[in-house]
Amino acid sequence: MAAVKRGCLAVVAILLVLVLAVAGGAAWSWQHYQQFAATPVATGQPSVTIASGDSLKVVVRKLREAGVHAGHDLEWQLLARELGAAGKLKVGEYALQPAPSPRELLLRMRDGRVIQYRFTVVEGWNIRQLRAALDAATPLLHETAGLDDAALMQRLGFPGQHPEGRFLPETYLYQRGDSDLDLLRRAHAAMDAALAEAWAARAADLPLETPEQALILASIVEKETALPAERPQIAGVFARRLKLGMKLQTDPTVIYGIENYDGNIRKRDLVTDTPYNTYTRTGLTPTPIAMPGRDALRAAVKPAEGSSLYFVAVGDGSGAHVFSDSYAEHTAAVARYLQRLRQAPAEARP
Question: Cα(325)–Cα(307) distance, rounded to whole angstroms?
Fold first, then answer.
């Protein structure tokens, strides 16, 4: 009996050791798994891209190719199931720097938190500058290469519409796989909305008949000053001139109508008639001359009240202007501007 009892105790002891060993192994495995899930991954590449149809196995393989050597495939599978990400990884490009943990990375992929790139349409750009900037943007897909402006607007769904002034200056986010057409569609829709909002709030006595005319005037105001506070004043000058039937006489419109403009505007340019020469023609130009921002749109439809009909740059480098009610006052302001210009160092002259 004693021998049997000792044998039973030995068996119990062995079983206890096995249970403890299994428990210890499980605890170690769980700790190792948690450490894997929480430790930032080291990588040699800045990002990884999930394509349509990629399984978790394919994604893990891409991570290995990108320099991520953390964890075994089983651990990635267990983590994906724990996070509800299995079979739900979204297409797109995901950042690997700064190094995320596997948990954070799979959560990003589950939620579609892809890398966002920025493209800014700058206030005052014309369509040529906008298209050149789009051509240089990466990793944007370029679908407009080889299209002239008419074909571009056709692709955007606005056949016959002139492209100038039609894209709102703002910063737009995009992701890998988006195209320049995608960005232009969004910028066009944003301008339509901003113009409609401005037009709905227009002043009652505005000398403009359509939102299109407001867009044209806003583009001229945009090119005349970079100072937001001055835009309503400049819009006021142009609004009063339109009411009186005076020519707008604004240099930016003349420049827009010059082919191969070299940076200098000459007297012959002011007297050579073009559809955009507001020294030779009365009224607004046939199209906008640039992309106006929201401030310029608001100024065009709500110009400042006053009596000034002229303005000229101060010439002190501030970008500010002097506003005058009469031509005599304006002539004196121009003389002061020219004097400052002559006294300024050559490199500081506009």
Answer: 6
Specify which residues 92 forms β-bridges with.
50
Establish whether the linkage from the previous residue to 98 is cis, with ω within 30° of 0. yes
With the CA atoms of 297, 301, 304 and 308 taken in that order, what torsion angle do they form, in degrees rounded to the nearest 10?
Answer: 100
Beta strands in the chain (DSSP E): 47-50, 92-95, 117-120, 171-174, 310-313, 321-324
Could you give the 3-state DSSP secondary structure of residue 340? helix
CA dihedral sign, ordered 49, 50, 52, 53: positive
What CATH topology corresponds to 39-115?
A: Dna Ligase; domain 1 (3.30.1490)
Q: Which residue carries 């401030």 as its tokens?
A: 295
- Looking at per-residue pLDDT, the higher value among 122 and 1 belongs to 122
Q: Are 283 and 242 in contact (CB under 8 A)?
A: yes
How many C-beta atoms surround the C-beta of residue 59 within 10 A? 22
- Of 180, 89, 169, 172, which Cα lies nearest the Cα of 135? 180
- The CA distances from residue 149 to 142, 184, 195, 235, 261, in Å, are 15, 12, 21, 29, 19
Closest CA to 198 of 172, 224, 221: 221
Residues 6+ apart with CB under 8 A from 14: none
Q: Which regions of 175-291 does DSSP assign to beta strands (E)?
A: none
Q: What is the DSSP string of 310-332?
A: EEEE--SSS--EEEESSHHHHHH
| Nearest residue to 166 (alpha-carbon basis) of 192, 146, 145, 140 | 192
Tell me the percentage of the chain whose pLDDT exceeds 90: 78
Q: Which helix (H) or strand (E) holds 47?
A: strand 47-50
**Distance of alpha carbon 216 from alpha carbon 78, whole angstroms:** 60
Structural tokens at position 283:
């009224």
The number of angstroms, rounded, from the C-alpha of 302 to the middle of its chain's C-alpha atoms is: 27
Q: Among residues of the chain, what percentage have pLDDT more than 70?
A: 90
The boundaries of every CATH 3.30.1490.480 domain in the chain are 39-115
- Dist. CA 323–CA 314, nearest whole Å: 10
Token reading at 278: 């507001």
For 133-173, how does the pLDDT look when each residue is reduced to its tens digit (9 = 90+)?
999 999 999 999 999 999 999 999 999 999 999 999 999 99
